[in-house]
Amino acid sequence: xxxxxxxxxxxxxxAEVCIPSLKTGVMAHIRLTKNGLVNGDVVKGFxxxxxxxxxxxxxxxxxxxxxxxxxxxxxxxTYAGHLVDFVGQLExxxxxxxxxDERWLEKYKKSIKERASSGKKNTETYACQVIRTVVAYCYWxxxxxxxxxxxxxTEEYAIQVDVRDNGNVLHPLAIDKSADKRSxxxxxxxxxETVKRYGPxxxxxxxxxxxxxxxxxxxxxxxHEICLLLKARxxxxxxxxxxxxxxxxVSIILNKTKGGTxxxxxxxxxxxxxxx
Length: 276
Hints:
The chain is α+β, with helices and mostly antiparallel strands. The chain has 8 helices and 13 strands. A 3-stranded antiparallel β-sheet has the order 1-3-4, with no helix packed on it. A two-stranded antiparallel ribbon has the order 2-5. It has a two-stranded antiparallel sheet with strand order 6-7. Helix 2 (73-93) packs across helix 4 and helix 3 (102-114) packs antiparallel against helix 4 (124-143). Residues 1-11 and 13-25 have low confidence and may be disordered.
């Protein structure tokens, strides 16, 4: 494990951690901030990877701070769970990340799938998710200059990847070949009406339930995003009527649970009108 001065990551300070008492001999593990100041924001549950010698993995911490610009803390915790597995495997193999190459990644993915979790082996989907996170991390390490020729798009790199215009890092081992590639069927209108019949029976609750179903089937937001949608964000009745006459959608500001950002969502004026 490479140590770096804490001065390189000033994003976290005054952080308390909340984790069960530790036993000697543990491998890399995660601690979560209880009251941490991260880039000026008080954040609960921000992850830090602690190595077997109880030192902070400063590379991973700086990577998490980098992710915080576009990711919710809950997503960063998921990535931390993947990377702590990666760091722990490097500790077992007595290697640094500079020693990682295609052959090591292939063996690592195989070992993930062979491990038992809750009595069952890990799935191909989970193994692909871990590899996807690890490869993206290795690419970041290389682009930041913390590694040389570790991960890049040309043949001289130990791990060769493709990088999309949106920044997504692609690698063959991260492709889930077990996933069902068939197109998802759009719900039929009769299915939707059947679902509504099993909703709440009281008038106000029934209207809210029907409206939520309409939002999901028409606009496609996540369930939690629909639940957090405020009535104040819906357009006025007059604005919705004008949009309906003009044959255009109305724009709703929606809080995205993935990334924690507000984004405009175009929806039909028929579901954008306050009905409750």
